[in-house]
Amino acid sequence: MKIAVIAANGRAGKLITDEAVKRKHEVTAIVRHDNQTKASHVLQKDLYDLSAKDLAEFDIVVDAFGVWDPAKMDLHDSSLLHLADCLSGTNVKLFVVGGAGSLYVDSDHKKQLKDTADFPKEAKPVAEGMGKALDHLKERGDVQWVYVSPAASFIADGAKTDSYTITDNEYTENQAGESKISYQDYASGFVDAIEADKYNQVQISIYQDD
Question: Where is the signal peptide (predicted)?
Fold first, then answer.
C-alpha cells in the first residue's frame, strides 16, 4: 500500500513508519523537520498546511500527531478536523493514533475510562482533548477513518513481544488483570489493522496478551 505517516518523527509515528517500511509498503514520512525514519519518501510540511492534493495519492494516511501542553489541547480537535476535510469524499482511509481514555468501561457505552475514579489526573487534559476530537470524527460520514487506541498503560520503552490482540472500543485486560501495550507492539498491531483492510469508521484498541 501507499502509506503516508503524519508526524513520522514522533515516538509512535516513527515506529509505525519503520514497521510499515519493514513490511515493504511504500511509505512517505510527512515531517516538519529532517526525516528521522526509514522511509525513503519524504514530504516536509506542517500538518495544517497539508491539502487534499497532497494526500490524494495515498491509500492510507496515518495521523500520529499529538500534543501534551494543557494550553494546546484544542489542537487535537482542529488537526483532526483539518485532515478529515482534506480526505472528505475520497477513498483514502485515515488511521489515527488515539488515546485510551475514550475506551468504554461498560457494555452500554455510557462511561469511558477517562471518567473513572482511578484515571490519572495528569492525563485527564489529554484524554479530554483527544476524546473531543474522536467525538467529532464520529460525526463525519464523509470520511473513511479508523481510530486506534492503545491499552491503558502505554509503555514507551516496553519490549516488542508480538503477543497482542486487536479488539473493539471497550477497555480490556489480559489474563493477568493488566491493560498494557508497548509502543513497539502497538506499532505492529497498528500496521496489522491497516493490512487487514476490514475496519472503517470505528474505534479499535490493541492490548498485550500477557
Answer: none
